[in-house]
Each structure stands twice: as structure tokens, then as C-alpha cells.
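Blinded run. Sample ID left blank on purpose so nobody reads anything into the name before looking at the predicted structure. Input follows.
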Amino acid sequence: LPFIPQILQSYLKLFDKCNSTVFPSLMDGLADIMCLIEKNIRQYLPTLFTLIKENWNDMTIIPSLKLICEIAKVMHDEFKKYIPQVLSLILSRMSKYVFEHDANTYQHIINSIVILAEHIDFVDYLHLVIPSISDLISEKVHISIILPTLKALYKLLQYVDGQEFISRLILPLTRLLQNEKRKIYKIKVVS
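Blinded prediction complete.
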């Protein structure tokens, strides 16, 4: 489509002119049209990731994650050079939403990690992600956080070979299962 560069340039100028309340809608809209833009987004990636980084907050995190995932789906391994920057943002906020018991935002975060692993060669970044997930499992967090974490971990390990990290996950998972078993037992005894 020959007119996409003109549309993208105009669309990206809106980010500079809009106030912070409109920014999430613009990110969401851009994510929605990624299937049309496809590889034409390549030249705008540095600008987009600067915008995402500068505007990374509670209000924009979900639309930003949606856009990041859509870009990863289109760009595949060309997206890999942005992964350190993206993972830094994602992992910095992951525990915040866990301890605030914001399960919806947390699910978006953890699922975005799985989508990234599905669409790019993610093995080089497991040393950052697995310890973060392992630490969360080790904490006493609400079940609304544990279940999405376990599901995402299962999916993540389907896309990447995480054998070297299994030992890091076994102990926290075992403790988690023992704690949940005790809770169930206490409920049965009380009943």
C-alpha cells in the first residue's frame, strides 16, 4: 500500500500534539492497524519505542503492551534489537502490579512475555525472565496472580528451551503447591 508512509507520519505526529489522556487510544489504534502496516513500521520503530518508553505508566501500559506484541508478530527477529529495552520496561512493572493485586494488568504483562517468546528467538532473554517469574512464585501472592503466572510459564516453556532454568523453578513451584495443599486441607478441616 503506497499511502501507508504518509498515514504513519501523520499518525505519529499526533503523539507529539496530544495530551496524556489521548495517548492510550492512539497506541491502541496503532496496534489495531499493525496488520495493515506490517513491515512498513520498520523505519518508525525507534520513534515508537522512544514514545513508549517516555510514556510508560499505569494508564498506557496495556495499550503499549498490545502495540509491542503486534510489532513483534509482524517484525519477528527484526524486533529482537528492541527486546532489552522492552523487557526492561515490562519487568520493572511486573512486581508492582502483583503486589497491588491488579490481576488484569499483570495478566497483560505476563501474556506479552509469552507472545514475545512465541514470535522471536527469545532464548537469550530467559535469564532475565525466568528469575523474575521464579521470584514471584516464591512470594506469597494472591491466587489471581499465581494462576496466570503458571499458565504463562507453561506456554513460555513450550516456545523456548528452558532446561537450564528448571532448577530455578522447581523449588518455588513445590513450595507453592505445598502451601496451596495446606490451605485446601485447612478449609476441609474447618468445614
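Unblinding after everyone has recorded impressions. Residues 79 and 154 are 23 Å apart (CA to CA).
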